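tokens incoming
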């Protein structure tokens, strides 16, 4: 389902004691969304269940960040990220996300589990210029090459800091 929501400049803030929880199948289709997720995003449960998790993807988020996230979780790694999400009405909200692999009773990957909480403002301030540069690179690269080009740039920045992505995000 292609998201056709027009973004506004109105931020909705996740409360400090609220956690957004969702589960997806291996293709990223939502199989569970808690009430906090539904409340902040503005979507009802029937609108979310079965929808691609990118239904809440904000256009200010570089595709390269999601390419990295998918590479990590498909490799069985845990991923932390600061993400700007889009509400159904066009408002936005920032989260500090933790995404992990969910396993079935036999130990095989069955989907992904994500818990998101209120981010620190200093972290948002730190990632925003990085995301803006990644978006600029993506616009120049064109749709096909955009995610990999911006991810390459991000990884070069991280290499200069001698950090991997999770180390960087957790240091903010």
């Amino acid at each position: 389902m292609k998201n056709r929501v027009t973004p506004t400049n109105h931020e909705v803030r996740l409360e400090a004691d609220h956690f957004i929880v969702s589960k997806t199948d291996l293709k990223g289709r939502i199989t569970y969304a808690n009430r906090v997720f539904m409340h902040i995003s503005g979507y009802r449960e029937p609108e979310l269940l079965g929808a691609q998790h990118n239904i809440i993807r904000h256009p200010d988020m570089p595709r390269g960040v999601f390419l990295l996230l998918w590479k990590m979780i498909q490799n069985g790694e845990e991923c932390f990220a600061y993400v700007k999400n889009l509400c159904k009405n066009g408002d936005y909200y920032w989260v500090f996300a933790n995404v992990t692999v969910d396993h079935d009773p036999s130990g095989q990957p069955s989907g992904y589990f994500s818990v998101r909480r209120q981010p620190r403002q200093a972290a948002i301030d730190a990632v925003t210029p990085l995301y803006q540069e990644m978006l600029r690179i993506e616009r120049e690269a064109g749709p096909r090459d955009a995610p990999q080009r911006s991810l390459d740039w991000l990884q070069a920045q991280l290499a200069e800091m001698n950090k991997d992505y999770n180390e960087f995000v957790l240091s903010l």
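note: The mean pLDDT is 96.
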